[in-house]
Every structure is written in C-alpha cells, then in structure tokens.
C-alpha cells in the first residue's frame, strides 16, 4: 500500500531534506518516525528536496507499507515520534502509480526579505536582511521576464544534477508589505538554487544596480556568471505543490494576493 503525507517543517535545525550520514535531516527524522509506527524500515520520497535551513509549509512525501492503520492513527502516531520541528498534516492512501515528485504538476516557492535599516531578531532564521532600500515595483517588473518556458541555465547552480535546464514558470510576482518583500514563484519544477539565484538577481534590480530589462538579458545569456549572487537560504520557503485532481490530495499552490 502506498501512502501520501503532507508535511510541514522548520528547516532551521536541519541540514536540508535529503538523508546524510552524520548530520540531522528532515528525511532521516521522517523515516525513523514512520518506521516506528509501521514496525518496519521505511524509505520516503519527497516532491522537492530543500537545502539546509529551508522550511516548508507543505511538503508532500510518499512511502510504501503493509502496515494497516487508519489516517488518523498514522498522523497521530508519526507526530508523536517526530522531531518537534516537523509535523505531519495529513495522511492519505494513493494509487501505486502516484509519485510525490514525478506526479506533481506545479511547485511554489517564496523568498522573503526583511528590507529595513536594522537586522531582524525574531524572524532572523526565516528572512534575508537587505539594508539598502529595495524598489519592489522594479523587481516585480523584472520577474515578469521569467514567465513561461525557458532555459534557466543562468539561474542554475553548478552542482545541479537535472538532465535539462528547461522549466516553465506559471506565476511570478514581487510584492511589499511594510518592511517585508515577498518573491513568489510557481513553476512545473525548479533547478538547484534556481529561486535563490533569481532572488539574488532581483535584489540587484531592487537596489538600482541594474534595470528590470537586464533580467531578460541574463535569462537569454544562459550563463550563470551573468546573474546575481545566490541569495541566502534562510529567506526561502517551500510553500506547496499541486497534483492532478484524480489523486484527490488536499494540496494547492495557491497564489499570494
């Protein structure tokens, strides 16, 4: 039997999602907690691996088991065994052909910037601080050049293992609420460090160092050296994922207003 789970986690205590040998990761904690409820070793697959320090409002995983539990028993049992920085939101049976990664039709990330003269304290692990005033209107103009299907090699890390760099951005916006700037991107998939590299590029536009049209030139160059620096991981948040309706999962990427 295959089960899908919605997962929320605070990425600050972990060295990313993917299991590593000697450092705590989200995957390790999930597999140990689920295994304790299933009474057998479990391997989990996620819809998108997050880096060190990156949090998720709604990550989706799947795992296979022969253990018989109802969804509430799975949810309460796993949560009772989990690290306090991780929470199972729901558990649902899915067909064997469901795959948390390959069945996804869209993923949504947000990048959050604290834009003020003094550094943040309370939310310092979940925001990137930029001292110089940023023009969010120019940043929003710039990000529109990334909409649609493109080769995103200019925003791809050198460690990216994806076989090809073409992705389709379905929604992209930059908005401001008081001292916080929100970069919001929905795409069919993302390359390694793609959102953080886009954020670093948009910050240059927001500072007035480059024009909004420069982002189109960077995109067309397909050259990572032409883009901005990779923005810090702590501002990045995995917000959600969409799947075809026939899987009937309680997920939605939505959009910020």
Q: What would your notes on this structure say?
A:
It is a single chain. Helix content is 21%, strand content 28%. It has 257 residues and is an alpha+beta fold. Strands 1, 2, 3, 4, 5, 6, 7, 8, 9 and 10 form a 10-stranded mixed beta sheet that branches. The chain is globular and about 60 Å long. The mean pLDDT is 94.
What are the SSEs and their pairings?
Blueprint: E1 2-9, H1 26-38, E2 45-46, E3 55-64, H2 71-81, E4 86-94, E5 106-115, E6 128-130, H3 136-143, E7 148-151, E8 166-177, E9 180-187, H4 194-206, H5 212-221, E10 236-242
Helix pairs in contact: 1-2, 3-4, 3-5
Based on CA inertia axes, which overall geometry fits? globular
Task: Give the fraction of residues assigned to helices.
Answer: 10-25%
Summed over residues and divided by their number, the pLDDT gives a mean of: 94
Rounded to an integer in angstroms, the radius of gyration calculated over CA atoms is: 19 Å
Amino- and carboxy-terminal Cα gap: 39 Å
Q: Which structural class do you get from the secondary structure elements?
A: alpha+beta
Quick one: biggest sheet? 10 strands, mixed
Number of strands: 10
Total number of helices: 5
């Amino acid at each position: 039997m295959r089960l899908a789970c919605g997962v929320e986690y605070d990425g600050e205590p972990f060295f990313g999602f993917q299991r590593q040998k000697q450092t705590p990761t989200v995957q390790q904690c999930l597999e140990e907690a689920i295994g304790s409820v299933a009474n057998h070793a479990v391997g989990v697959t996620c819809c998108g691996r997050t880096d060190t320090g990156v949090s998720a409002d709604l990550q989706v995983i799947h795992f296979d088991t022969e253990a018989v539990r109802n969804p509430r028993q799975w949810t309460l049992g796993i949560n009772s065994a989990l690290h306090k920085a991780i929470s199972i939101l729901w558990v649902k049976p899915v067909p064997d052909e469901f795959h948390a990664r390959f069945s996804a039709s869209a993923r949504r990330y947000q990048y959050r910037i604290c834009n003020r003269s003094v550094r943040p304290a309370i939310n310092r692990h979940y925001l990137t601080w930029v001292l110089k005033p940023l023009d969010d209107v120019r940043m929003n103009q710039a990000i529109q050049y990334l909409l649609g299907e493109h080769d995103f090699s200019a925003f791809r890390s050198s460690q990216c293992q994806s076989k090809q760099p073409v992705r389709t951005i379905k929604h992209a916006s930059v908005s401001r609420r008081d001292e916080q700037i929100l970069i919001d991107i929905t795409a069919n998939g993302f390359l390694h460090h793609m959102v953080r590299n886009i954020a670093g590029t948009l910050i240059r536009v927001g500072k007035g160092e480059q024009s909004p049209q420069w982002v189109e030139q960077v995109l067309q160059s397909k050259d990572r050296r032409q883009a901005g620096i990779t923005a810090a991981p702590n501002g990045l948040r995995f917000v959600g994922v969409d799947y075809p309706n026939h899987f009937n999962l309680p997920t939605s990427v939505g959009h910020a207003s």
